[in-house]
Amino acid sequence: MSGQHYLPLTDPVRQEMLASVGAASIEDLFLDIPSSIQLTRELDLPPYLSEPEALAHLRHLAAKNVNLEDYTCFLGAGAYDHYIPSAVRHLTHRSEFYTAYTPYQAEISQGILQAIFEYQTLICQLTGMDVANASLYDGASALAEGAVMACGATGKKNVLVSRGINPQYRQVLKSYLEVRGLELSEVPLAAGGQTDLDEALSRIEQDPETAALLLQTPNFLGIIEKPGHLADTLQQHGTLLVVSVDPLSLPLLKTPGEYGADIATGEGQALGNPLSMGGPYLGFLAARENLLRRLPGRIVGETRDASGRRGYVLTLQAREQHIRRERATSNICSNQALNALTAAVYMALMGPEGMKTVAEQCLQKAAYAREQICALPGYELIFPGVHFKEFAVSVPGNPEQLNEFLLQHGIIGPLDLEQTYPDLPRSALFCVTEKRSKTEIDTLARLLEGWK
Amino acid sequence: MNAAFPLLFEKGRPGRKGFSLPPCDVPLKPLEELLPRECLRKSHLDLPQLSEPDVVRHYTALSRRNYGVDSGFYPLGSCTMKYNPKINEDVAALAGFASIHPLQGDPTYQGALELLYKMEQCLKEITGMERYSFQTVAGAHGELTGLLMILAYHRSRGEERNRVLIPDSAHGTNPATVAMTGCEVLQLPSNDRGLVDTETLKAHLDEKTAALMLTNPNTLGLFEKDILEISRLVHEAGGLLYYDGANLNAIMGHCRPGDMGFDVVHLNLHKTFSTPHGSGGPGSGPLGVTTQLEPYLPYPVVAKDEDRYSLDYQRPRSIGKVHSFFGNFGVVVKAYTYIRIMGARGLKQASDDAVLNANYLLNRLKDLYHLPYKGPCKHEFVLSARLQKKRGAGAGDIAKALLDYGIHPPTVYFPLIVEEALMVEPTETESKETLDHFIAALKEIAAAIEADPGKITGAPFSTPARRLDEVLAARKPVVRWKKEQ
Fold first, then answer.
1. Which of A173, A398, B27, B226 has the fewest other C-beta atoms within 10 Å?
2. Into which CATH architecture does domain B346-471 fall?
């Protein structure tokens, strides 16, 4: 029989149990299903596999994929190839963590509750914000939830979105916002590649119904936004500043807390989570203290147990769907808790120096790669702004063909930008993380030079 | 007082490191040349400084203060806490799955697309739906996306329908999702058998009805035996039928939502298909639809042309995107592995055993605790501790008392239509000995409440923490550690 090693009941025991419930056969327990929809045939699924056969089948499928252990990756665009310390997987795969449900029973869930409390603290320390939630699905939904929060907090309906925000995130924003009657409008980029903040401000001045301005920094095209005193001005207009940030840029870059953002969101994949073809990832969301009761999803809080010892529970649950139902701040139930644990373990291992080392190496190596590539004939840096680990380059040909060429040489090449920014033809977005070596960058430059 | 379990931030010493990275091998530029002062972080990044053994001990100690399916029985109703096969974890960690970039291009991950395609074929057959998207990463995410599709469908027919019917026994995510779409929730009272009453339903259906959201079997563990009539009524009124797949584990190989008349279905791979809950996530909530609704699925979908697979973005009527990439791929890999190991007969056996285990428990417990809706049940059932509550210890107390037996308690105080509810879902991966131990524990607890409820209201006694003060936590929220504490 298939899958029997997961099923402890044996036939004699089944018979005994059936007798105890007064059923002659298992079918007796399914008589409430109308006969016209009872399946009279077996499901038509592929034949079952034993464990070694399943492993072989899955290994065969996995082997058909180009993977980053064998190839060198210069692709980012929202998913990043950073080094994951060995201890991360060992700890997150303690089965007491990964086989548990949401910690509703706090007395036997202090482990994950404390770990998430620590995660919330680490996210606050990294972003310079006051409070953080326990996780959301990914960077896109975190930004969308942040925008919805801003509309709720201000009682306004219009949201300004920078064109520098990840195009996928903008699509998700549209899905989350439009259906509730919230309006999105785009703010263009200035020549330097950064958001045209003057244009944003004049729009806000014209439209007092603007709930929030949404920025990503570094933005999708790799340029660091300079919000300066923007937040103060926005505050005068009753508009919130909501940002999406790269967590591994924050050891170096001015934090959302420092430039006065009201809500800071982001994709936490880079913090120890494997690329895994786009998921499971980690949406983080942090905010100013006054927005605490508007946060979506789970929040862990400190309390005391009956003996007076410090302990942790899921708190402020009156915001959540299982209590508040249609008046909840969000419908989120399952989140990405294990990915949040992963991020916490990663940050605990890296510490302030490790985090800073990663950020500095990304900065330096990307700068070196930028210089090497843009010195080549036919390759030109598109935006002169300040960069972190990604940069857009115009290339002397079709980026798709360039990537085919690079792939033949063991390299996963840059993102073809034209597909999402039609006004940037023959353009590619390169990403260089701390994992890339000088040799790999030099090889890339040599290949680019020789292309065509 | 807190010395035994300090926080990360209360450990560590300056200069201690838990990482090992090579030195930067490119020529270094002065930082100010790369980043103008106005872009620089001003505040010190005040993370704890720990060595690798410090971090390993910290999280190992925390894991020992946690309880998973691997620790013991977890009959948490509506959550399907079945055993999570170990092979699933190994497979998802293969470099060919874990180390692939979502944007590296169709030709470079044919194996991943083939897996998604094959998984879609399996789910189509198991549920009788026409097409699936894997972009939705949780049940609630599926609900939101499903409703967006339903609304888009109605609008395409020139109809503005903004009312969604939900039985009063439904999961909290259902009404919360409806609110997120700007629609109105209309709650349907269940009848005295705990089911949707077709007469009540009729009275609530009109030209404003966008959909009825239903779990079948419902949260009481009862099969909506009038489902075909319900489906006919909703469709005749111009509405659509949404299936919350939280309870699919009861019916695999017996019947299919598609054959019941559902138009949109979300599954919970983290329930029915054995992927771990990860202390709250990640899950995966694939969304299945009929031919009629297929054009509205989020883009891209996986397409197959002869033996080549691709991501199809040419979906003009799609509702758009709901995830940065393609959903929780790593979770889908695990669930696919499970389906391949179980096969058709294994999945049916899983449902058979889940239902048998639930009925066995129901029969042995119904004389100890009040059973408001009589069986037979499907994969779960709901008891009421109202008699015990009168003696002085309610469902919440019973839950805490179970912790002292090394058992994770059932879901309590849900569904809302049962007073002092204890919602029990044993799953198929439990032996009769485990069920008997659970029965014995509940019997002792019931007897203790008869004798001296005070013994139970003080529980638990043997857990890593005693009963925690939730009121205190909510009244004075402390949601992060701060240095000045």
1. B27
2. Alpha-Beta Complex (3.90)
